[in-house]
Amino acid sequence: MTTTTNIDENFDAPDFDEDELGEDQLVSTTAGRKRLFSKELRCMMYGFGDDKNPYTESVDLLEDLVIEFITEMTHRAMEIGRTGRVQVEDIIFLVRKDARKYARVKDLLTMNEELKKARKAFDEIKYVGNEAKIK
After folding, report:
1. What does pTM read for this prediction?
2. What distance in Å separates the CA atoms of residue 9 and residue 6, rounded to the nearest whole number?
């Protein structure tokens, strides 16, 4: 997303270091809205080939798009199924025709179930270990 052209050379790129921003710190925009995904988007942009410190404007634009997408999907999900509630089935229904999104949703749901089972197994082992210590 970050390109270096003659136009971009007129602007000084901020020397931003990810470590300067605390994990819990939110970046405010000029509109007063908090930037929720700024750090994560910077990392994702870098992972997809952008500069390590992408332009703030690029990150803000991408965050606006992400928030718009989430908001639109949430509103659409609230209109189907149980009105006023968002359920997993509603999201699956909305992305069913987009093969990539559908596959990703299915992968994430499968992984979530596997993590739940692993946590449950770990808790059971931990519980049995504590019982043995008591005896």
Report:
1. 0.63
2. 5
